[in-house]
Amino acid sequence: MASCKGCGPGYSSPLDAMKGPREQIVYLPCIYRNTEVLKPDYLATVDVDPESPTFCQVIHRLPMPNLRDELHHSGWNACSSCFGDTTKKRNRLILPSLISSRIYVVDVGTNPRAPQMHKMVEPIDVLWKCGLANPHTTHCLANGQIMISCMGDTQGNNKGGFILLDGETFEVVGNWEHPGEAASFGYDFWYQPRHNVMISTEWGAPKALNGGFNPAHVKDGLYGTSLTVWDWTTHRKLQTLDLGEEGAIPLEIRFLHEPSATEGYVGCALQGNVFRFYQTAKGDWTAEKVISVPSKKVEGWMLPDMPSLITDILISLDDRFLFFSNWLHGDIRQYDITDRRKPRLVGQVFLGGSLVNDGPVKVLKDPENQPQPPPRIIQGKRVPGAPQMLQLSLDGLRLYVTTSLYSGWDKQFYPDMIREGSVMMQVDVNTVTGGLTLNENFLVDFGKEPDGPVLAHELRYPGGDCTSDIWL
């Protein structure tokens, strides 16, 4: 199947995907909400082909029809889960809006370098048909439908449900979960059909997120601490795994790519921990902390202890390496996960952050005894913000990085990024022994956009990537 030309989208296996062509363009949602610019968010197409005359440039911009959507994460109408279906094509990018609750469907198939709007799903359809709002993560399903996790109800309260879109008409079909069985909170999810399981994660109540991060809201129970385990076939909740204080705000969840695997990792933002989740011999699921990035005692910051704030994680397609970003401390880390229970740190690079040695924050005590890093300057541009969203090339050699998390938190923690715009960087990955090195010849400065500085977020390749493709 790997060599057949009549196959469906994606690749027959994760290892086959690693042999795919090098990425030439990437798509990024660009956000104006919470900035000084009153313009619609847009989808940017960036040329990442080093042989191209427009290398490191935005070559197309598709503005949304509305203001203040807060485009966030994106997904596909079809991916490798549909590989055996010749009737399916990966030709539509799904763009949910975190704040407005609109869902945009973008045609990236007709002209991949100049995407066009295909359809818009209005918030009222999501509300009336599903009783949900604040859509976040999109995954395509093998049956042709599209599933999107949601974070709240229409009043801004936490509610972790899922909406289904028809894969042809993109109309809202209804809820995936049964009536009254939504999780307490919503955010990310990953499914594993071979073991009849889906696991979802939790961020916080939308009404708490809207005005920035307030530590008191954690004590008030407005942020999640649990993983929810679902039966993939019956859509019933099987378990709630409460990770406790050490697992507060579990964000991105990644199963190993190998479809027979019964384990994966989740990054827990607030305490800087990574948990490994896995299926036990009894058939149920549990989780254990396997990585901890300690907070640093500081002065000159909002709190006396600064957590690393793990905000994005991903796993290489061969399941050898785990990468994650520490959005407050400002570094990206690479771990060898050959021993699944004992990840081993093999690479680290600082790219901005709140600890830079010429900034207002002074580290008083660091359990890791690391010096405060210098500011990162690329081609004369000082990096505002810190590494946040990650995307790895299929072959595992290039890690792309953007710096915006969510406009409300960007404004609070990195006001310079609101003024100057975010950036996109590239890190070279040593896949033999491990190691991360910034590519000094690569920079996309979103502070130079025609309508003013903008916040660029999650990255997608037209052919699929290691955070959106699921194999059966």
Write the layout of secondary structure elements.
Layout: H1 14-17, E1 25-31, E2 42-47, E3 58-63, E4 75-76, E5 92-96, E6 103-107, E7 116-121, H2 123-130, E8 133-140, E9 146-152, E10 162-165, E11 172-175, E12 189-192, E13 197-200, H3 206-209, H4 215-219, E14 226-231, E15 237-242, E16 250-255, E17 263-268, E18 273-279, E19 285-292, E20 296-299, E21 305-306, E22 310-315, E23 321-326, E24 331-336, E25 344-350, E26 362-365, E27 377-378, E28 381-382, E29 390-392, E30 398-402, H5 407-413, H6 415-420, E31 423-429, E32 436-438, E33 444-445, E34 455-456
Antiparallel strand pairs: 1-2, 1-34, 2-3, 4-5, 5-6, 6-7, 8-9, 9-10, 10-11, 12-13, 13-14, 14-15, 16-17, 17-18, 18-19, 20-21, 20-26, 22-23, 23-24, 24-25, 27-28, 29-30, 30-31, 31-32, 31-33
